[in-house]
Amino acid sequence: MRLVVAAVGRLKDGAERELLGRYRDRLADLGKRVGLAPVLWHEVAESRASSAARRCAEEGAALLRLARGAETVIALDARGKALTSEAFARLIGQARDGGTATAAILIGGPDGLAPDVREAASMLLSLGAITLPHGLARIVLAEQLYRAAAILSGHPYHRG
Question: Does the pTM exceed 0.90?
Fold first, then answer.
C-alpha cells in the first residue's frame, strides 16, 4: 500500500528535520517488508492569506490535491479519535489487507484543517489531547508509522 503524508509548513534544517529523516529512513526499509511502500512525504507551503479561514481553505485545497486518488484519507485533528499504537497499527494493517492501494495522511497548519479536508477524511485522528507544533506532529506521526510497521512485522522495536 502506498502512503502519502502531506503536511502544511516546511521544516527548517536542524534537529526536527534530522529526527524526521531518521524515522522516514527506518519506515522506508521496514515498510517495504510489510507492504507499506512507497511512503511519499510532501510539504505544502503555508498560505499567506490575511484571514485564517482563507488560509485554511487554500492549504486544505493543496492537501486534498495531494490526497487525490487515495481510498483512505486520515486527517490529523485535535477533535479526532486518539488510538493506541497497537490500534493504529491495526488500522494501517486493515487498510493494507483490505485492498487499499493508497492511503493519505494529512496534517494541517497553524490554523488547523479546512472543513473540506475534515469532510473528505475517512477518519479524523488525534495524536493526543495536547497541541503539537506541526513539525513535531510530523515527527510523532513518522515514529508511529514506523512503530506500526514494526508491530505488523513482529519486529522487537515495539515492546508495549
Answer: yes
